Amino acid sequence: MNSIKLNLRTNAVIFAVLIITTGCASAGSRSGVQAKPNTLTKKEIAQGFVLLFDGALAGVQKNFKGVSDNKKVINRAWIVRDGVIYNPRKDNRSENISGSIVTKKQYSNFDFRFDYKLDADGKTVNSGIKYFAYPNTELGLEYQLYNADAKVEGPHALADLYDLIPAKSRKANPPGKWNTVRIVSIGEKVRHYLNGVKVLEYVRGGPAFRAAVAKSKFKNRDKFGEAKQGHILLQDHGGGIAFRNIKIRVLKN
């Protein structure tokens, strides 16, 4: 079983997850078949996918040795159990500790995939995946994660590019059930997928994108979302969401 390496910035709310090497990844019993969560099939390994989370609680605890407040963080803001990494609701945490998880590496061209599940009673759970995130911040482009049936104003619904561009559709399983997300970035073109269906496509820095930024909360950020590369971040925004099968493939432009 591979291990996951984490690094805690005690003066910030960001926790860094190092990338897990491809060679340690487990494959399914048959090529193209997912044997169990948090593994890679032979086909995925051949394609160059790398696991960012392998489901191992022991690995997380081992690599937190010597880090200040590590036990509080791993047991409050994020809990690794039963093959998932779970972000419990803040009101269910025994202490007021919070923080998002961010990749140590930065990416520009990638195929990023994961499964998520809202709490069964999580009709108002509000979370997201940020990409092209600026170093040492939680600012970046965001794939919004929300209950598909929620009534929201503006592009703040499930699969939207948060506060910028709405998705065309958002057919998702209800809270308590798993959904699959895919984000593909090649050059300036980005695509959002939900449960295998492309729901949004846009061009970073294009006319429509810049017009959306100009009307958004990011309007005062120079060339927001147009950096050549950035981190990928799992947001801690109130909790009530679980993740698994977190993987990425670096693509050629």
Give the helices and strands, then pairings.
Elements lengths: L5 E3 L5 E4 L24 H6 L2 E2 L5 H7 L6 H7 L2 E3 L2 E4 L12 E4 L6 E9 L8 E7 L7 E5 L33 E8 L2 E6 L2 E7 L3 H8 L16 E4 L6 E10 L3
Parallel strand pairs: 2-6
Antiparallel strand pairs: 1-2, 3-14, 4-5, 5-14, 6-13, 7-10, 7-14, 8-9, 8-13, 10-11, 11-12
Task: Describe the fold and architecture.
This protein has 253 residues and is mostly beta strands. It contains 4 helices and 14 strands. The strands form 2 sheets. Strands 3, 4, 5, 7, 10, 11, 12 and 14 form an 8-stranded antiparallel sheet that branches. A 6-stranded mixed sheet has the order 1-2-6-13-8-9, with no helix packed on it. Strand 11 and strand 12 form a beta hairpin. Residues 1-34 and 59-70 have low confidence and may be disordered.
Task: Write a concise keyword list for the protein shown above.
253 residues; mainly beta; Jelly Rolls; 8-stranded antiparallel beta sheet; 6-stranded mixed beta sheet; globular; disordered N terminus
